[in-house]
Amino acid sequence: MVPSVLIVDDEKHTREGLQQALQEHYDVSVAASADEAFNLMEAQEFEVILTDLRMPGKSGLKVIDKALTLVNKPAVLMMTAYGNIESAVEAMKRGAVDFLTKPVQIERLEILIQRALKTKTLEVEVKQLHERLDHKFNIEGIVGHSTKLVEVIARMKLVAPSKATILIEGETGTGKELIAQAIHQASPRARAPFVPVHCAALPAALLESELFGHERGSFTGATERREGRFESADGGTIFLDEIGEIGPEIQVKLLRFIETKSFERIGSTKTITVDVRLVAATNRNLEQMVKEGKFREDLFFRLNVVRITMPPLRERTDDIPVLLEHFIKMYAAENAYEPVLIESGAMQHLQRYPWPGNIRELRNFSENAVVLRRGGKITEFDLEPKFRGEVAPPPSLQTPSPANPYSVEAHAKILLREALMKARGNRTKAAQLLGISRRTLHRKLAQSPELDVLDRG
Predict the structure, then answer these.
(1) pTM assigned to the model
(2) Tens digits of per-residue pLDDT, 424-450?
(3) Quick one: angle between helices 12-22 and 106-136, nearest 10?
(4) I need a surface site. Which of 5, 24, 206, 214 has the fewest CB within 10 A?
(5) How do the domains of the chain map onto residue ranges?
(6) What is the pLDDT of residues 276-313, one digit of tens each?
(7) Is 395-454 assigned to CATH 1.10.10?
């Protein structure tokens, strides 16, 4: 689509000359006054407005003011007479993106128009990105309705608008970073950076530099000055994941930062002050670490202003069906596959399963189900043994011992098990697969009670 440009100038030859110069690459409209420009702006959208400053009646500053009231704000370039720089500066303060002196150089004008269009495109992309982030990390969008999760959400809503430091506790995989991101998005800092740092992934020597930055030559390998994460997060939120893994030296510097909001880069004596909200997370018991002398008590108290405890998935079994539905739909959409349906028998097993990997493990299960199944249903017989509570098959169902590889009894039980699994517990189908009567199958099952767990029909 050709970008649209509006030229506003009371001088006829200037309007027409600029229109002629630009119309090959742009959809150009012209206006002889601010009022005429207002009417055109109400009637159609423009990406760029090029306006003279001094005009009879309303000046170009009024054109800027009007442009800024529009839903889709155009970029405004101001034209002014040579030497009238003060007015140009005033125009920039009012919202113009740049200015040109008359007589206008067409080459420079085209450069400024292209720059303005790129800036406008970036602003639209940033706005769309923020909208996606707001939707993805909206507190209201957190999936689940169990009592413990509802309590967490209520606490998040209370603390999000504040500046309070937050400590999020919970097992690995419970979604601590998601909670931190949602708190940031619900805070007044939502349009500023959210900077995550995974403390356990960095050696102590690198973590200090990562957090606070360093000066060139401050240590071997420091070939240039580097800005730390606290500087990058200025105005926003820094998320320190697995904070229980940081060493004593970093604990001291972190304590000082919390108390003063200031720090020095490694190799520098210059104090840097930033406005950063701190959210920390841990899967360890920091109170116990304090008692053991592994974590500073004063730092713990500074971090533990507001504590949010994320429950493990095994304590919110009511959320498992809705979480599975959510992730299955998400991965199905990502891969352009049909969602899978989990039958009630399988769902009961999944709700009883303890999910040691918590949400992370459940997400992996959902993606695996979508990719491998591509629609269809998942029954309890499709689940891995661990989901059905089977750690390993009983000895009588394992592969015959090498000491007796010709054991007829062992092979018979293996065949019975495989037939029942393939028939998904249906005795009639299992008997047909084995080439025996249903009565014979019943008799063999009675002789092998350990197979009853597979008997479903």
Answers:
(1) 0.63
(2) 677 888 788 777 888 777 777 777 765
(3) 70
(4) 24
(5) 4-131, 139-309, 314-388, 395-454
(6) 999 999 999 999 999 999 999 999 999 999 999 999 99
(7) yes
